[in-house]
Amino acid sequence: MSMLIMSAGRPINKHQLLDVISAFLHGRKPNTTSYSVCIECKRRGNVCVMVAHGIPCMGPVTHAGCNALCPTYNRGCYGPKETPNTASLSNWFKRLGVNEVDLVRYFRSYYGNSEHFYKESKVHMKKRD
Amino acid sequence: MKNDKAKTKTIKVDYLARVEGEGALYVKIKGNTVTDVKFKIFEPPRFFEAFLRGRSFCEAPDITARICGICPVAYQMSSSHAMEDAFGIRVDGQLRALRRLLYCGEWIESHALHVYLLHAPDFFGYDDAIQMAKDYPDIVQRGLQLKKTGNEVVILIGGREIHPINVRVGGFYKALTKQELNSLTEKLKRARDIALEAVSWTAEFDYPDFEQDYEFVALRHPDEYPFNEGKLISNKGLDIFVHEYDNHFIEEQIAYTNALHSKLKERGAYFVGPLARFNLNFDRLSPLAKEAAHSAGLSPVCRNPFKSIIVRSVEMVYACDEALRIIGQYEKPEIPAIPFQPTAGTGYGCTEAPRGILYHRYRVDDNGRILDAKIVPSTSQNQKTIENDLWQFIPKYLDLPSEKLKYDCEKAIRNYDPCISCATHFLKLNIDRE
After folding, report:
1. How confident is the model at residue B342 (pLDDT cuts 50, 70, 90)?
2. Is A70 within 8 Å of B165 when comparing Cβ atoms?
3. Which of A15, A67, A73 best probes binding to B when mutated, by most B CB atoms within 10 angstroms?
4. ipTM for the complex?
5. Please, what are the domains in chain B?
6. How far apart, in whole angstroms, are the C-alpha atoms of residue B297 and residue B281?
7. Non-local CB neighbours of A1 within 8 Å, separated by 6+ positions
8. Is A110 at the interface with chain B, CB within 8 A?
9. Closest Cα of chain B to A23: distance in Å?
């Protein structure tokens, strides 16, 4: 179960927890989405905070399930997701003026030890030093 | 548990129930004398202060909020104020009012949880609120409804009820519209009625005759019941600015607990939380809250910690009242946060968490990166007073059967609504009788 919760991005919300418990009680597979927070933003009709306001957002590399909470409140998201394209996101962040020190910080928050985030943060650790 | 005839007796509570986090109590009694009291917090240390080093100032409200699932707003408020202090900025007007409203929501949700679900069962002899709900379903349901209203305030302003995401240094990410806030009005009016019932309900409980000469410490603001700002005062002469905190308070490491003990350098143990706020700021309560307190037979100074459950209920009345006042006068601010540039410096913040003052201090560099952090939560400040209470309380009730004494000790600890998760940086009960 820990794998599943880890892959659901940010702290899971109560609906996700209820679904996991009910899935295990019924012996079914939990309903988890396969897409990123970006899709939820589009569904809610949010204007992209990164494209429109230049706010670095981890949404593209974060598993959906929160209903795009942070971007709905005009702020960027913090990760993560399975097989995310972290390198591409780092490049986009750099274009927004994020330096190597801050890139490390972005990838080393609550999920800093998840595989892809850890690898990406190491890339920027090297460049930073 | 040894039998009551033996001369030495140990009371052990290995896992204190109905407190937030993991702690234990150990009491040793020889004959008619209590020889040892240890309030042990064994929840592992959490190192928040250390892993804030090197992070950006703007992450402090998000990261420190994770210290507590019940009072995350308090952490967001104290850290934001401390950073704003470091950068020399002030958040005023409607943004300040919106912060106060968010805090009202947290007080309602936290106090309702403690009054109805954690503390009230003690006064009826139940093991938990679920048992209590069998006999008093309406009361428990009202409590849950009150808590839900608190949650709804935090959800609307903060984005979610636990670890809200909308607070930032300088204000908010998104300011709400008057119309959005108006959606809370009817619910808050109903919540205020339930809170008033809670005051008259808790006023009827049987209270042990137990009073101590405490030093109460709380914030004091020129014209408000304290949430975010004020001077730190006590009933024994303390009157200081928040930035002078470290000159007057020290933290000590104690071998048997993972939470640092905080004390006043000059006078030792002190008392923070609803009872301290009430005793020091009664005149700042709203007329309705004052009236509710009077009708419950409460006036300052109340020195009986068991009556903190009534005071918590009075504070719920106040928080609903204040929330309604803020919503009534609210107009959407033009910008959600005031602009600023981080500068190197040290900032101090202290706000009134539901359980009492919460102190934060940060040193940041020119890029706004945190060089060091100090966080002193309310429960670590109350630990010494909790132990002192038990030293005084137990000798009065030595004739009680062990199980009953154990139950009463836990009840005495719950007077403080200890949040062990916050303090580890704690509950299990052991009573040893010789």
Report:
1. very high
2. yes
3. A73
4. 0.83
5. 48-208+329-385 (1.10.645.10)
6. 17
7. A20, A24
8. yes
9. 24
